[in-house]
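Example 3.2
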Amino acid sequence: MPAALAPGIGRLAGRALRYTLVPAERRPEDPSADSVPSQEFHVIDPTARVHASAEIEADVAIGPRTSVWNRAVLRNGATLGAECIIGRDAFIDEGVRLGDRVKVQNGALVYHGVTVGNGVFIGPGAILTNDRFPRAVTATGELARGDDWTVSPIELADGCSIGAGAVVVAGTRVGRFATVGAGAVVTRDVPDYALVAGNPARRLGWVCACGARLVGPTGAKAAPDPSTDARLACPRCGRSYVFNPESGSLLERPASSTGVSA
């Protein structure tokens, strides 16, 4: 293992810092670990890799086989699941929770109040905000502090992708396997499997769980507003979907009913 990316080594306030590692037999997922005090789980898993230049604050949890690269910042209470990749100069704010197999690319900013599901991609330079009415000062001119504003949470559902340089405005949800195009500004909820782009982001079409653009019965790209019960297909992997007008999103059809092998 390269010396620059050794397990259990990070940096806090410019000083080298070594963390306590929980042995595999005492990790939280082990039912026998109930007798271990909960505070012992605010640690770095022995299989995780943290670059020496990363800044790791107190009570950060980093899951198995997760990698944290150069100059990344993980603030107090952040939780990273298993097999995540946190890129160079990425910022993960206090209390942010990332699921398993999440990729946060270089320079992405993920602020307090964001919850990220499993298998989510956050592109380079993407920004996830948390305040819909930001002000540096109060109405009386005093410096605004924590009690002077309200966090508006963001949820990134399982499998969705946020493109490079995109901005997700506070108080929105990006649905399962949805794709937000590079540079988009998301100001309202994005349905499952939707493809959105632009400023403000608008729906251009639909994408498969594998990421490919879905097509309609004629083979043309699926319309952003399909007809009721419209059936969409993936030209890459063969999955099939049906439009649900009640939810405004897609539902995957079982492989057995479409003739597509599992």
